[in-house]
Design brief:
This is Serpentine Receptor, class H. The structure is a single chain. The protein is mainly α. The chain has a single domain, classed as Rhodopsin 7-helix transmembrane proteins (Rhopdopsin 7-helix transmembrane proteins, Up-down Bundle), CATH 1.20.1070.10. It has 11 helices and 3 strands; from the N terminus they run αββαααααβααααα. A 3-stranded antiparallel β-sheet has the order 1-2-3. The protein starts with a helix and ends in a 5-residue tail after the last helix. About 3% of the residues have low confidence.
Length: 282
């Protein structure tokens, strides 16, 4: 457990920061099927450029995915990777993915069209928008094809790598179980912990993937519904909360550390109330 603590903290940190950005810092309202929108978060109140806000959120998404990837790569390396080629190659591969996650948005920021021309075009296609919103709208691109395909390829590579790491780690644990290179108890704990990690990660990822699938369908079918867009991003902004509950209910050490603290606090409050209410006896 100690060898994976920092990696689990890394996943939880970026998940929490991403939630904070979605729900408070940026609060984006995206106008799918068009790559346009507006923000109503704290950064908009501070006067931060919408392009900077979008860049922050996209970078955080990339680093959240990378934190999951590094977590499972660490499990694979710790639990049985004996390949010298992979041990030499892994650091370079991970650094390349991190660089791509950090600077992925920069080329697309150069494609932002002239807003005086692009905004009227989007508003003409969305006449109902001005019925409930009269503020500024930012158009990031008029053609989402390049961004869509690049993002799809990037996410496919990352999640395919995570899937391969999961399969290889499971096979290593299974092979160790057959060869009895470790004690049965140790192998059982490793297998149980690995399955818990997969479950812990799969639940919040599903919370993100399903809304994004709805957004992708909106883009492909050229269907606009601001209600659907808002619900999708509301669900995404709560994925960290889902992650927290998943950690508490899946990992026993977290439950043992959290629930007794709450119980002790509740008992303390109860004792204080009782000590005040009970009358004194002369």
């Amino acid at each position: 457990m100690s060898s994976v603590k920092c990696y689990m903290f890394n996943v939880h940190f970026w998940s929490a920061l991403l939630d904070l950005s979605f729900s408070f810092l940026t609060s984006p309202y995206i106008l799918f099927p068009y790559v346009a929108g507006y923000g109503s978060g704290f950064l908009m109140w501070l006067g931060v450029s919408p392009l900077v806000q979008v860049s922050i959120v996209i970078i955080e998404i990339g680093l959240t995915v990378m934190s999951i990837l590094v977590l499972f790569e660490n499990r694979f390396t710790i639990l049985g990777s004996s390949s010298k080629v992979w041990n030499r190659f892994r650091k370079i591969f991970i650094v390349v993915l991190y660089v791509f996650a950090l600077f992925y948005i920069i080329p697309f920021s150069l494609l932002v069209p002239d807003q005086e021309m692009a905004v009227p075009m989007i508003l003409e296609k969305l006449p109902s928008l001005r019925c409930f919103y009269t503020g500024p709208v930012i158009v990031f691109t008029l053609d989402a094809t390049l961004i869509g395909w690049t993002t799809a390829i990037k996410l496919t590579i990352e999640f395919l790598f995570i899937l391969i790491m999961c399969i290889m780690t499971y096979l290593n644990i299974k092979n160790q179980n057959k060869q009895i290179t470790l004690s049965r108890k140790t192998l059982s704990l490793q297998k149980k912990f690995f399955i818990s990690l997969i479950t812990q990660t799969a639940i919040p990822v599903a919370v993100i993937i399903l809304p994004l699938a709805c957004c992708a369908y909106s883009v492909v079918s050229d269907y606009y519904s601001q209600a659907v867009n808002n619900v999708c991003f509301l669900i995404i902004s709560n994925h960290g909360l889902v992650t927290t509950f998943a950690i508490l209910f899946i990992h026993k050490p977290y439950r043992e550390a959290t629930f007794p603290c709450l119980e002790t606090k509740w008992r303390y409050k109860t004792d204080v109330v009782i000590s005040i209410v009970l009358p004194t006896i002369d």
